[in-house]
Write a structure and sequence with these properties.
Blueprint lengths: L1 H11 L14 H4 L4 H16 L8 E5 L1 H12 L6 E5 L15 E7 L11 H10 L4 E6 L7 H11 L1
Parallel strand pairs: 1-2, 2-3, 3-4
Helix pairs in contact: 1-6
Length: about 160
């Protein structure tokens, strides 16, 4: 993610924080929020102490399981994260409470064999729209990946 999204941070003047999960995947994928959220909270605190962060422009992003997690964490904390970028998410994790109304950008490859678009984003996007979220959805001719042109599209959308 750092390699792929560093150009996004450069293009938007952002600070990129790329934490990893505490286990093989994100905690809420198999249960509730726990050690991963605690780690992200500490990492955000570390960044806020060292960088001039515009709290009104915090973006949460992820790819694959990370996109699934970013959607859950971002919707649960929409009062903190104004935007969510989800590259090839798998599903919506049930959350107890949704705060704020972050805007959402989702991309997915039509030839994704790992997380097929018909079972994933083409189900997620309508559910988010029905719940009242503003969602931009970009399908692309490709597999389970983040093509460079989508990084540019995401940067343009974030501006």
């Amino acid at each position: 993610m750092v390699t792929r999204l560093s150009s996004l941070a450069d293009d938007t003047g952002g600070v990129l924080l790329a934490p990893d999960s505490r286990a093989t995947t994100w905690d809420a994928i198999g249960g509730g929020f726990g050690p991963d959220v605690e780690f992200i909270d500490r990492a955000l605190g570390w960044v806020f102490e060292r960088c001039a962060v515009n709290a009104a422009r915090l973006v949460l992003s992820g790819f694959s399981d990370g996109a699934t997690y970013a959607l859950a964490l971002g919707l649960a904390n929409g009062d903190l994260f104004s935007r969510i970028l989800a590259f090839s998410p798998g599903f919506l994790i049930p959350i107890d409470r949704q705060l704020g109304r972050p805007v959402v950008w989702i991309s997915h490859g039509v030839r994704d064999r790992i997380l097929p678009i018909d079972q994933c984003s083409r189900r997620i996007v309508p559910l988010l729209k029905q719940a009242g979220y503003s969602v931009r959805f970009e399908e692309f001719d490709g597999g389970h990946q983040i093509p460079p042109e989508l990084i540019k599209s995401a940067a343009d959308w974030m501006r």
